[in-house]
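hi support,

uploading two proteins for the ticket. first:
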Amino acid sequence: MKKMITMILAASALIACDDESKKTESIALNYPETKKVDTVTDYFGTKVKDPYRWLEDDRSEETENWVEAQNEVTFGYLEKIPYRDELKERLTQLWDYEKLGAPFTEGDYIYFFKNDGLQNQSVLYRKKGEDAEPRVFLDPNKFSEDGTTSLSGMSFSEDGKKVAYAISEGGSDWRKVIVMNAENRKLLGDTIRDVKFSGLSWKGNEGFYYSSYDKPEGSELSAKTDQHKLYYHKLGTDQSEDKVVFGDSEEQKRRYVGGNVTEDNHFLIISARNSTSGGELYLMDLTKKNPKLVTILNNFDTDSYVIDNQGSKLYIVTNLDAPNRRIVTVDASNPTPKNWKDFIPETENVLSPSTGGGYFFAEYMVDAISQVKQYDYEGNLIREVELPGIGSAGGFSAKKEEDVLYYSFTNYVTPGTIYKYDIEDGTSAVYNKPNIDFNPDDYESEQVFYNSKDGTKIPMIITYKKGTEMNGKNPTILYGYGGFNISLTPGFSTAMSVWLEKGGVYAVPNLRGGGEYGKDWHDAGIKMKKQNVFDDFIAAAEYLIENNYTSSEYLAVRGGSNGGLLVGATMTQRPDLMKVALPAVGVMDMLRYHTFTAGAGWAYDYGTAEDNKDMFEYLYGYSPVHNVKEGVEYPATLITTGDHDDRVVPAHSFKFAAELQDKQAGDEPVLIRIETKAGHGAGKPTSMIIEEYADIFGFTLYNMGFKSLPNQIDQKVKG
């Protein structure tokens, strides 16, 4: 039986409107019928029903038909939002400005990425000298007609005369690596296929290292992949001849393996992990004829990597005995931790270092705000780098022989600006400032600290237009992530600038589970402590409401991937808290996530339902798919995902949508927007991004009661 819901939305009290515009409207929704299959799994004596498991089969005609039917309903609804086109037009206007990437040198050329404004993919240019005329080197817009094939990584040989670059088709994590002669831009016959979760690192000019899994049986988008292998490809040979360097035996079975050659081509550094946190570290001395594998770390308790070397002296970044990270030195002949010596000791702030021009640049997060210090190779502090303001700085890297580097600076109201930095005298100059129709002076960001449920102090940055009246009626998006040691630092978003200029408030808390305060902060939001993350997010919403930034009637919660889980858990635990929920590409089935693609590698953060009874019960207690209840009024929900998402398979979102549509007791809509030829998000074409944001903002404002766009402005048309 198809369920019909009629939405009655009152005109917002915020908008001055005549009697005609005050009239309510109704949109009838006929959800597609989603069949239920009697599927049950026994977990430690608890029988768990899974009626929509059939939607996990991404290759079935039934699933394909379900996707088409859901999209027909969703887009039929979105098309009726009166200002959807107006939002798309304004997003397009604001997006249409030149975006320039920081230049980098390879061989005799200076390379840089540029997007003219609305190109689906940025184009790689190069020039022979600072004053030379740039020419197109690689244009990803020509990879496919619809812009859904993207450039996803590249690496030049030591002399800069050859380049290996990876492409992603339809947003998939599976890549194809193409090798090109950089001098004449002719392709070489060294294409590598079926590459996944891989860097590309050259050994001189002879060949390069890459990582991948054996092609899985069944669906390549959802089948489990758990034995990663590091390969070496010698130029001029067939892929079938590529040698496995690490990961080919049962003893070396790891889920994530990476290889990186040091800048001087002395060492191959190998990382090996079974989860996204904690891993082993090895090296091979490439100056020797048959190099042996040398162990640096052989456990999965901490995170460490080699950032640089001087001859046999290694510089290692580690959180071993240093939750906020430190840099240590050790000789490669005996590189185990007992021989490590502090180079840049741990401080109270999290360290994220880089190197350039013969110096280390130690970037610290101070309450999620950047601070950068420059050190020499003896560990002496040279200076604190004077940054343009309060925000996020990144990109302090260059080759050792270079005397300048380029870094970017941004915050929630400052579009990303590139600065040229003189490494010796420490001066910065603007290299490129984007010409965007957005005036940062009209907006402000404030950082507040609030208490979570257990009393833990959580920082949050709230951004809005100056002069905004805190009357509890401002449309607000609360965005969060809270996992995998990921830090949410201030950054400009063209899309969110449209939200801000319409009078919207944008709030981003730094939840536990992230990396803003180091390993301890991360570990406070994992496994049996995951509820801390949801509590932090709920407390952020309560802070915004209590302080009249907004109210439940004007609050939307948003997050993607692990942040999609955050939204799913929050809306099922506290459906009264928000008016709109926007979970994107979320991990929604916590009992089965580890059975798809590389999902088992997320166990450090989540644990699995197979670990033990306590872990199962904890996951079952918050898993969004399993906590949608009959008779509950859930907020207006727009779930977004991509049919080619092989990171968090779309079945998570499919099953969550089916549960919500079946059990929703209120009048609020539950829709799922499934992008075709799109994956987890990386490489998505500009046109697709703009359309998605227009739909997200339109859905959000419409369900908050806005019959026309709030805070109208004089919109200037570019040109």
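and the second one:
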Amino acid sequence: MLIGIDVGGTTTDAVLIQNGEVYSTAKVSTEHGNLLNSLLEALDAVSKDIPPEQLERVVFSTTVITNLIAEGKTDRVALVLIPGPGVNPASYTFPDSFYLKGAMDYRGREIDPLDEAEIRKTVGLIQKSGFSRAAIISKFGQRNPSHELRVEEIFREAYPGCKLELGHKVSGKLNFPRRIATAMLASATRERYQEFVDKINKALEERNIRAPVYILKADGGTLPVEKSIEFPVETIFSGPAASTIGALALTSEGETSVVVDIGGTTTDLALILSGKPLLASKGVKLGGFLTHVRAFAVRSIAIGGDSVVRVKDLDPGTKQITIGPDRAGPAYCMGGKETTPTDALKFLGLIEVGNPERASEAIKVTASELGKSETETASLIVDRVSQMIADAVNEMFFEWEQEPAYRVWEVLQEKNTRPENVVGIGGGAKGLIAEIAKKLNANPVIPAHAEVGNAIGAAVARPTLTLNLHIDTEQKVYSVAEEGEIVSLNTTKFKNLNKISLDEAETLAADLLRERAKDFGISEYANEAEIVNSEVFNVVNGWYTTGRLFDVNMQIPAGLIPEWKRRE
């Protein structure tokens, strides 16, 4: 049996899957002040009367990190930066930054040594300023982390109580500012996330649940909960990822669809191209900073089933319906105090939840303010919400069409086309998707169990893993960006280090990914890894080629675990 739990802005959804099919579902109100309570309440509701030893897998989609960053509750971090030449430190907008001399070139060769007296002075200043944690990030540190490691050693000697984060261990990708942001946010959230994980483990232990526990990531993949502590910021935006994987699980294989997840507070949009969710080429933006966190190309808009409906006066004698962006609790028909789109949907008989008398009462009040009939008012509300979401989808397409993966997909399709389906996920989907699809000239699809599609997505998402390999044959070294270690090529099985082929480099990447997958406990998916990108460049000195640079990017892509039986 598999359990998936997704924390949403309004409700926390849970699903129990047995033999590839939905066995039971549950919905509880989300306690924003205590997400753990919501997760455990949903867990208990969906697993009631189920012997814990029958559970095989538990997956959580959580907004813990997202909320910490959005609410400004992260810990302060001293940023110890080694930017090297060519960068004006004043151009960075990162808070609490301390700059050091020293530099590596793009191949990881030292071109400017560290000033250890300066480092010790900086460490003393950081301690005196009251920082309890610091992130050490060197430009091109992922090609040679020796500067970061030496600064770490001095920190350990001079300020042993300081919690340290090293940039090359958080992200091995190029783009110094994004690596700074990723390291900063990892350091700022790690301790609180560790506390959250500890509480989850304790709660599961109390329930005698021994099944492997995973956390859903922004790229739609799962990560063993203990490993997720090393990469806390990768768990952000897991809600949109859950809805995307849920749509993938609940629709036919290989289809191209817009995913519209309509919750109580927000609506999340995503795109599936020929059965593969579209990944954003740029990292996620968090707290105003672009990061290296992989994520689906998604957008959230502040409109949902519980958004407040108001009547706004325009010119004399002219009134207009406005919706959101705020939410004042549940819909009126669900015990709330304000008219919402959910009330309009209930009044028109488009959804089953809610009290019909209270829905009529809410629409009657709004219709009176608007000066129209109740049926006309409810229809206007539904049309307005549908148009707002359809407009957001059209706007999103301008961004999606700039994504490299989308452009490759268009080339393979040999035509410029829009998705044929609009897949509705979430509690508000049933009453709105038909109208949204009509406005987008697409087919409406509301799969079975769409109301808990996010939880299904969490339950059946398989692990993902990336590996970026860089080989420098002139220096006779290679490095894996995610590992932060420089390794001699003499340790490999290459017969001729001067004549390594791209095929051989890709084979090494595949072998290293298998080792990394084994370390993460997900070896069974390693053979499904695919090459995302591979390049080779000649190193020329004078008139001669003296070496070659290889860059190979591999991934275990997002997808579904084999235990799930996809519906056709």
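thanks. also noticed: The chain has four domains: 1-69+196-240, 76-189, 251-452, 463-554.
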